[in-house]
Amino acid sequence: MARSRAPTFDSQRADILEHAADLFAEHGFRGASMANIATACGVSKPLLYHYYRDKSQLLFDIADHYMDRLLAIVAEVKERALEPEPHFRALVHAFMEAYEHAQSRHRVLVQDVKFLDEEDRARIVARQRAVVDAFAEAVAALRPRLRRRDLRVPLAMILFGMLNWTFTWLRASGPLTYADMADVVLEIFLDGVRVKS
Amino acid sequence: MARSRAPTFDSQRADILEHAADLFAEHGFRGASMANIATACGVSKPLLYHYYRDKSQLLFDIADHYMDRLLAIVAEVKERALEPEPHFRALVHAFMEAYEHAQSRHRVLVQDVKFLDEEDRARIVARQRAVVDAFAEAVAALRPRLRRRDLRVPLAMILFGMLNWTFTWLRASGPLTYADMADVVLEIFLDGVRVKS
DNA sequence: CCTACCGATCGGTAGG
DNA sequence: CCTACCGATCGGTAGG
């Protein structure tokens, strides 16, 4: 009979994923070696292969679990059945809060998904597209008479630009919090910054 | 007497830089080998080392030349001495036009500068900061009564988010042109997207 | 003696 | 779950 999994299996696996995400974020997928990850986790390199088939699987799991989280946020906000503007505000706030607690995963998603093989990459990209579509709908609902339907996705991508670019400059330890940032983005996106008459 | 450089030296060097930028953009700094770059350029690997001391020098040159271009745009627009809003519009349009013709260099700047050694990285980061400062001033001029001075740089970073994130989704061959994109960003940043009463 | 450039191979390290 | 290794490929440089 097959031996059962150690009770620590899942937490050990999660710990490896966390350290791997940090190292991929900092050094890139090619720049971080399996030996580096093993050392960071305080385990041997062969033990890593007990939890993950190969290096790509580790990368895929980081990206896929992170997409689980982002899609769960989209679903949770949708369930509240809010009016267009509160719905939009809730999405932006929930995403910034998620980003605050997943900075390494966020970087990995942005910079390293291109190293996945075609099949794995396609799955991640499809799930990202689902998130973009949810935002495009939320944006369109704000402006129901928007004439150019072809601008729905670009408007969502512009919004994601404001939110996602934070990985290059916003730090949880800085003076501007992630919640402040959500408010500033909402102010700009909803009203712009031009001097009001 | 020292033999002079071949007349093709500068163009050969520029050709190498271009191919290296494409490969770094696609595969990352660690994923693109000197052998790959040599093959793409149609030269031998040792010849690469005639033009560039090492792989890092190649990366630095890509980033530094691109910063030359971006800082030149900032200076050119400043020389026109426009009013705040036309000045701001000119900056956004000029940057989007530069991005359109430098997609690989743009990606390299975003994703690979972290692989430079401390000194080279510091130079690039300092020049990037100069660009951010120029945008922060241009944004502040739009809204001279902005109460929170500490929002000047975040506002500029939010704008850069909209512009720079295009590297993930905007294609020169697509239906939305870079010039269209500049106009949409300006509309949002200046007026927001809320339904106007 | 210089610079320009080749075919071949170096020491070290990657993922496995 | 370890040490000990492998085939391959890395960035960089030797002699000529």
Short description:
2 copies of one chain form a homodimer. Chain A has about 200 residues and is mainly alpha-helical.
Task: Write up what this structure looks like.
Two copies of one chain form a homodimer. The first copy, chain A, is an all-alpha fold and 197 residues long. The first copy, chain A, has one domain (54-191): Tetracycline Repressor, domain 2 (Orthogonal Bundle), CATH 1.10.357.10. Chain A has nine helices and no strands. In chain A, helix 4 (55-79) packs antiparallel against helix 5 (84-100), helix 4 (55-79) packs parallel to helix 7 and helix 7 crosses helix 8 (152-164). Chain A starts with 8 loop residues before the first helix and ends in a 6-residue tail after the last helix. The model of chain A has no long low-confidence stretch (mean pLDDT 89). The interface between A and B is large, with 45 and 45 residues. Chain B binds a DNA duplex (16 and 16 nucleotides) through helix 3.
Instruction: Summarize the largest interface: chains and residue counts.
Output: A-B, 45 and 45 residues
Low-confidence stretches of chain A: none
State the helix count of chain A.
9
Mean pLDDT of chain A: 89
- In whole angstroms, the N-to-C terminal distance of chain A is 77 Å
Number of domains of chain A: 1
Give the number of DSSP strands of chain A: 0
CATH architecture of chain A: Orthogonal Bundle
Tell me the overall shape of chain A.
elongated
